[in-house]
Every structure is written in C-alpha cells, then in structure tokens.
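Review form for a predicted model. The reviewer records the input and the model, then writes brief findings.
Reviewer: anonymous (R2)
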Amino acid sequence: MTTSREELKRAVHTIMNDVVEQGFHHLIHHPQSSDELNRLIREASDELSYQMLRIDAHSFRQGSRELHNYYLEISKSTQRKSIELLSKIQRIQQRDGVHQGIRRFLD
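Model under review:
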C-alpha cells in the first residue's frame, strides 16, 4: 500500500467498502443470513470509521520515517481485518450454497 495520507484514506475506504458490498450483495439474495451479515457489515463500517480516524490521529512530522511506519501499520491492520471479515462472509456464502471463484462462472 501507499504512505500518502490521501492515498491511504482512499485505499482503506476501498478495502473496507468491498467487505460491506460483499455482505450487502449476499444479504439481498440470502436474507435468511441477515443477522450474521448485518453484524459483519456493521463491523466493517466501524472498522472503516476507526481506521479513518487513526490516519489523522498522530503527532508525527510529515515525511518522517515514524509517519511512514504508522501508515504502514494502518494499511496492514486494514488488510488483516478485511481478510478476516471477507472469510466470514465466504463461510456464510458456502453454507448458503453460493459457489465461489471460477465455479460461479461455470455453473
């Protein structure tokens, strides 16, 4: 990922928004999983808000190594959380009988 403030904000937003979109997409087609999916969507939205606040919550000098490392940690943390939430959504999809990956296009 990047270390520019604006680019990092866009990246965090894109990554967590993908989780929200995946959750909503499955929710529309499989409302029987609404409680779990709503919880995951809320968690992704909360994570997005939290990381956006973290990006500006520092006292590091612009261009410093400390700021670079701070932004890098936010980037990694966002990616880990996204993977965690997407894997939970994928498990719900599998349980609900949704085919993943290339199989979806072959069916």
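Findings: Residues 102-107 have pLDDT under 50 and may be disordered.
Further findings: The helical segments are 5-29, 34-56, 65-95, 102-106.
Recommendation: see findings above.
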